[in-house]
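Long-time lurker. I teach an intro course on protein structure, and each term I like to show students one example going from raw sequence to a predicted 3D structure in token notation. This year I'd like something fresh instead of my usual example. Would anyone be willing to generate the tokens for the chain below so I can use it in lecture? Attribution to the forum is fine with me.
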Amino acid sequence: MAKMSLDDLRKLRDAKKGDLRKREVEGKEIQIIVGMGTCGIAAGAKSTLDTFIASLDKNNLVDSVLIRQTGCMGLCHSEPTVEILVPGMPAVIYGTVNNDVANEIIQKHIIGKELLSGHILDRPAVDILK
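-- Reply from a regular --
Happy to contribute to a lecture. Here you go:
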């Protein structure tokens, strides 16, 4: 078994602390919920989840956005499905979320605060929001 130097151990510790920081719930009002039922996984949800995680890192959003997994959302025909919760905006479920759409969700919905109308599956009616 290879021995690790003290610097290697410190780098490993810092990397693991960063991974744990991504799982912190406190202080994160924005949520990305990826449907990871068997239907979602078969449709590519694991790749979509990985893209969201990488994009959050790239855009320095790890401390303000919580990413979680859930089971099947009941929209198997449109997997991978992703629910986005942003304060002051309606809760939205996007369907057929591939890697490109995931990056677009980060840029337009999370950062730009605008909805991506082409992939919305479920959005509350305007009268419910008032």
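Some talking points for your students: The chain has one domain: 26-129. Residues 6-23 form the longest helix (18 residues).
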